[in-house]
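Troubleshooting: if your tokenizer reports a length mismatch, compare your output against this known-good record of 362 residues.
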Amino acid sequence: MAEIQESLLAKLDEIEERYSEIEKQIADPAFATDSARLISLSKEQGKLKTIVTKYRDYKKTVAGIEDAEQIIQDSSVEEDFRNLAKEEIQELEVKKGPLLEDIANSLVMAEEISANSVIMEIRAGTGGEEAALFARDLYNMYIRYAESRKWKVEQLSFSATEKNGFREVIFGVKGPNVWSELGYEGGGHRVQRVPQTESQGRIHTSAATVAVLPEPEEVDIEINPDDVIEHVSRSSGPGGQNVNKVSSAIKLEHVPTGITVSMRDEQSQHKNRAKAWRILRSRIYEDVEKKKRSKRDSQRKTMIGSGDRSDKIRTYNFPQNRLTDHRINLSLYSLDKIMNGDMEELIVALKEYDKQQRLKDL
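Known-good structure output:
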């Protein structure tokens, strides 16, 4: 524990030094005309401000304890003053521990707390129609949870089956701490239940995959337009004559990464293009960030944003009303409530486990 605290304090010294450096750069007239640089520095300063403010309060508390201890050890000081110093130490010690813990929480989760917009992609996996129905159920679960958190949801794209399941659905979620709460959902989700189409009452196993991508602002990531090839075509499927006559479907291809996005939901080419660019930007941003995380620390033990589609993270067992998250060996016998959007207990457990792993990595 002492080693963790020592490395934590060393890290906080680095952050405070960087914060002071940013303050000097922002005040430098040489940066006044570079708006892009100023925006970038201001955003970095905003991310660090809460931690630095708390750390300075912590250092002030430690200094107060040291000053009071000197008074106690000074034999020339009157007894009444020494008693007051002892009382002050007790008060400051009570404040000191929780303050450092709060700083640690802010530090290890700082990156995620700052992201307030994500794009989620859910795709049906193995299991045919039942997998598509499960994908729809997952979508409804997230929508209900978002509603309970007063977050804004925007549907971007979906592909439905004949029985109202989802082959694929893409949607955006915006609100405070969205990434820090939904970032754990990326990966493979498995369901065990009796399908609606099963007449013999047999339990089937199906799967769906979820991707959660932090949605960057345009200043967070620069994409060279020359690196993106745009294909325009006519939409197919329901939608009336306009669908067949107007070339409204958009496909974007980012050549350096090979990432592609197709959008044909809207009859307006302009709306399809705007949605496609949002999704493309998020996918490229996540690709870049994933490589940064890997390069920065291959041993970093964090689960948020690390969910690969092929990794089975969770099983939903309907006959036993049980949800099991395999990453933290947690089983909750309240699947009905969770599917209805009551995900708080699950997310709190994931965040706490993740936080402890990150503190060990400091």
